[in-house]
From TrEMBL, chain A:
Sequence ranges assigned to domain DUF112 in this UniProt record: 19-436
Pfam families linked: TctA
Name of protein: TctA family transporter
Organismal lineage: Bacteria, Pseudomonadati, Pseudomonadota, Alphaproteobacteria, Acetobacterales
PANTHER family linked: TRICARBOXYLIC TRANSPORT PROTEIN
TrEMBL record, chain B:
The name this protein goes by in its record: Tripartite-type tricarboxylate transporter receptor subunit TctC
Phylogenetic placement of the source organism: Bacteria, Pseudomonadati, Pseudomonadota, Alphaproteobacteria, Acetobacterales
Gene3D superfamilies on file: Bordetella uptake gene, domain 1, Periplasmic binding protein-like II
Pfam family, one: TctC
Domain of life: Bacteria
Family: Belongs to the UPF0065 (bug) family.
CDD domains: PBP2_Bug_TTT
Amino acid sequence: MNAVLEAFGMVATTEVAIAILASAAYGMVIGALPGLTATMATALLVPVTFYLSPIAAIATIITASAMAIFSGDIPGALMRIPGTPASAAYTDEAYALTRKGQAEIALGASLWFSALGGIFGTVALMIMAPALAEMALSFSTFEYFWLSFLGLMCATLVARSSPIKAIAAALLGLLVTCIGIENPGGVPRFTFGFTDLLGGIEVLPALVGVFAVSEIMRAMTAAPPPPIPHRPLGSILGGQWALTRRYQKQMWRGNVVGVLVGALPGAGADMAAWIAYANSKRFSKEPEKFGTGHPEGLVESGAANNSALAGGWVPATLFGIPGDTITAIAIGVLYMKGLNPGPTLFTEKASSMYALYMVFIIANILMIPLGIMMIRASRHVLRAPRAAAMPMILLLCAVGAFAIGNNPFAIVLVAVFGVIGYVMERNGFPVAAMVLGIVMGTMVEQNFVTSLIKSDGDLLPFFERPVSSVLAAMTVAALLWPAFVWLLRRLRRPVPA
Amino acid sequence: MTLLSRRGALAAGALAGIAPLARPALGQGRYPNRPVQVIVPWGAGGGTDATARIVAAVLEKEMGQPFNVVNRTGGSGVVGHSAIAQAAPDGYTIGMITVEICMMHWQGLTQLTRNSYTPLALMNEDPPGVQVNANSPHRDIKSLADAIKAAPAGRLKASGTGQGGIWHLALAGWLGAMGLRADHVRWVPSNGAAPAMQDLAAGGVDLVTCSVPEARAIIEAGRARSLAVMAPQRNPQFPDVPTLKESIGVDYSVGAWRGMAGPLNMPAEIAQALTAALQKVWNSQEFKDFMNARGFGMIWGDAQGLAAHMERTDGTLGAAMRAAGLVRG
């Protein structure tokens, strides 16, 4: 109890309050700019943390990353540009809602369920950190292989097209991940001697290209759509309580998936969002509505990516293993401030840990008023005439892609993927499935090949380890389920006849 | 572009006008008179980025002009290293180069070598340690080395970084120094030291060669042990970990270093001014506190020191890469 009071004293200082407020506003703005990710928002804060007290330093990172992950949903919903890879899973859904004139439902759901997911993740971090960390440590490459394979199988679920086209699109994504030297063999593939291709295709330029640039191209060729009725945005949180009641089960499932996936090093918020979205569609009573502007999937995956953010701190604080790129940076700051990750952080420096939890809760509560302000400020984008908006969006895409690594080649990538995305959508291939292939491909390959190296080419260990065998069974079941359903229908049909 | 060059022309004209008057007063202290760009070939948030940012922050205080860190990522470090080498040699673009400059050219990934730069200063080096799972029967490095020698080739598995990465070469070189083939212990490529340490804790591999600071959290969590470091001396941060030489008499040391450098043909007085300022940075309390907090190894070398260090590394790593069958072209 003393530690909690002490922690309260550490958080309730002017310095921490200013740090939280300033980094919240900063994270909100960076996340909303297409191409500028939550990771970049955090990285740019590191030099600032040199001059802050330990709690204030960690507070800036927690607050800025939580805000940026949420506000990444804003350009996704309004302009179909996912602000961060974590928003890509449901960008199409949110954009469809906006086109239906329900932008406030889309953004409100993102905001409300992001905040709830973040708070749930923090509570999970508080009471289950050691158990979650134990689970994360028992995951070897065999388990990661099955997990990423399961993630890849979501491709047929996230798409609204025929499964064959979805699989084809996912395979194209896998081909894209083959480019570069970042493969288990360390051998350059498909680089054609270009230095810029050595590092492979980064996810973000591809994402911005296939979603945003292809949308701009379509807008140029198609007749202007019926204008969205000019009316002020309705109440942002008004409809959310009804949604919470209606989709309570989905919200809890998204929270739990988010924490579990987030706690696994290397999996992170984007994978959590994909899996949650696919789960939501699979178990939905009205899966046919997905992709047409249906909030159900938004609820589940919006909750999942923010609870994953808190989950990522579990292995980071207990073992110094980054759960994602954001916690990788946070670990560096923890060391610099003398809060070395490890079990001792929870015992000897318990008050600092409690202070950290409090910052998490404060940040997620603060997200709601700040988010509403941000949504209200950015809604004008919808009213801008198309001739003015589209060139601006294109410029933002280029600037955002360049900002990732100050590398002009990223702009070329955005353009190339814009064309690919346009051609694919024209012919009914879902771009979301290709993005999923790009996101998961490296993980699938890396974990498959390294597992085979470890087992000397033997496939048996993929099914032998306990967790691995469960995941394998889930994968096989997911593969065979459609066939089983089909068989069941066939067997039942003769009965009434 | 036109705007920039016009401004540049104006500035040059103005300078030409005042230069004769100013020279006696300002002398050598004139550099730098505008912001300096510091290129980092690796992404924001990593160890190299953090080191470059603290160096830049202290340099700014020393030299009175902003030193702006710019991450030029891509091409597994080739893009950023090229950007440093190809910049105008006027002292306004410098960068942090890393051990990969002594590796990439052997693999035929780039034409760039250590000779493509004006060396300024060596700031840091982290030697690899040899880590095992806490439940491993090997309490010391001798027991592990004996087990490695006794095991058939390919039985034991090690990890720590990608195929052909610095920690892979550390293992290959160590095995070579013990008279074994470079692939006697099979390398399991990983996506960096942290996932490798996690796999070690999960029982996926037998040993991990990576720097001790990278392994620190897992060791402190009681999940792994560090048996030795491949360095001439023990790390003052981790005084209990012996060196290879003192424990099993194998004299092998290699490390991941970071240094500051500029493009070739930088004016000598500017290079000297930067080296002198970097020495002050290295000796500053801020830099020391940062490096100690992160557990990064501190090693100083001036321009000649860095050049000699690069030459030595280039030879050692070239030999290790040849032994591991990674040399191409």
